[in-house]
Amino acid sequence: MGYKLAGFDVLGCNEIDPRMMGAYKANHDPKYAYLEPIQAFKNRKDLPKELYDLDILDGSPPCSSFSMAGSRESGWGKKKKFKEGQAMQVLDTLFFDFIDLAKELQPKVVIAENVKGILMGAAKSYVIAIYREFDKAGYYLQHFLLNGSKMGLPQRRQRVFFIALRKDLAAPFLEQKDMFTICPKLKLDFNERPIPFKEVADYLGAPISAYAKRAWDMRKEGDADISYSKARIEGMKVSDMNNFYVYDDKVCPTLVAQKCNGLLFSYPIFLSITEACKIGSYPSDYNFVGVNARYLIGMSVPPIMVAKIATEIYKQWLGKSATT
């Protein structure tokens, strides 16, 4: 959706989850759709010619390995299986499978999104390896930590975007970034007006449970989530980051991939589906084909963030390279 908003044609996708693929097909009817692990897809030798030398190859390798809310280092190198019934995989190496795919298809630009936790602590070693592998694949790489609330998204969603330009196209754009680094100049400075929740609210969400209501009744201004209230009841703080508070006058926090998340601070109700769509920049008529809407939106890169990035890449790189 983001690339279409930016004026690009989207040719297809590779996806491992049949439910996500079902939603993608229902809404976009892709010309090419490969329902299989990327480890199999990257080794295909029967791909159509138009999937080579693409303007942009976009991917979001699963980020739970680097999320500050996840197991992080203790889970690295271990095979995991998502609850959707996907194959067992080592999630923290999928980024390198994606780079292998880029090396095979040789798109002009590669974009990969991840959580900001990948820039923290021991995960920095992965970032160094990602830079090294993109260099071997023939790309200049740089990364940007962007906040959706500054990009026209009514959500405080911070994500890292790795953006690579193929070296043979980069000469017109190269600049000395610092003493040791030369890379293609790309300016991604967004500073749009924050959109508070009340501007997208309809207050039609489902009521919270009686247990949650008891905690909600003890909320105090400034509480980030319902765990603060639970601590006042039970005498100890228990993590409940999924049931975060949404304040009318503030930008909504990051939507997470859970069935029930986002409690209104002003009313004892959850976010409505329509509100979740607006917060995630999804169209109100999106066909979720039975997939929980909050889960799909929480798992997604917000389309408006992609549209803003893709527009700048075209304006600053692709649109200029066609005439140079």
Shape, per Cα inertia axes: globular
H/E element sequence: HEHEHEEEHEHEEEEEHHEEEHHH
Largest sheet: 4 strands, mixed
Structural class: alpha/beta
What's the structural domain tally?
Answer: 2
CATH H-level homologous superfamily name of the largest domain: Vaccinia Virus protein VP39
Tell me what the CATH architecture of the largest domain is: 3-Layer(aba) Sandwich
Q: What would you report as the Rg, rounded to the nearest angstrom? A: 21 Å
- Termini, distance in Å? 29 Å
Uncertain regions spanning at least 5 consecutive residues: 67-72
Number of continuous helical runs:
10
Tell me the name of the CATH class of the largest domain: Alpha Beta
Strand element count: 14
- Please, what is the average pLDDT? 89
* Beta-strand percent range: 15-25%
Helix content: 25-40%
Question: Can you lay out the helices and strands and say which pair or pack?
Answer:
Blueprint: H1 2-5, E1 12-15, H2 18-28, E2 32-35, H3 38-41, E3 56-59, E4 79-80, E5 89-90, H4 94-105, E6 109-115, H5 124-137, E7 139-147, E8 155-156, E9 158-166, E10 174-176, E11 182-184, H6 210-216, H7 227-234, E12 245-246, E13 252-253, E14 263-264, H8 273-279, H9 293-299, H10 303-321
Parallel strand pairs: 1-2, 3-6, 8-13, 12-14
Antiparallel strand pairs: 4-5, 6-9, 7-9, 10-11
Helix pairs in contact: 4-5
Short description:
By secondary structure, the chain is of the alpha/beta class. The protein contains 10 helices and 14 strands.
